[in-house]
Specification:
Layout (H helix, E strand, L loop, with lengths): L7 H13 L4 H7 L4 H13 L3 H10 L13 H6 L3
């Protein structure tokens, strides 16, 4: 299993945002579409993002979406992995 014990909140936001748009980040790593290093960079980027409150609210109220909010710094990377 892939997880980030040093940044569990950022891992949860990153994984949750991906899930909402239909992307499974663990599967993307296993399939070779995303490296473990790239995934780590995404989690680090999320850690530095100042949008935790709006992100929490969006994730709490969104089951599925076509795209991520514009403020998400991982938007382009995650959406590029959409099926």
């Amino acid at each position: 299993m892939i997880g980030y014990s040093d940044a569990p909140r950022a891992w949860g936001y990153t994984r949750g945002a991906a899930r909402v748009v239909g992307v499974d980040l663990t599967d993307a790593v296993v399939a070779g579409w995303l490296s473990r290093s790239e995934l780590g960079e995404m989690v680090d980027t999320c850690t530095r993002c100042g949008q935790a409150l709006p992100c929490t609210d969006w994730l709490a109220h969104t089951v599925a979406a076509e795209e991520l909010p514009g403020y998400c710094p991982n938007k382009a990377v995650i959406e590029a992995l959409k099926p």
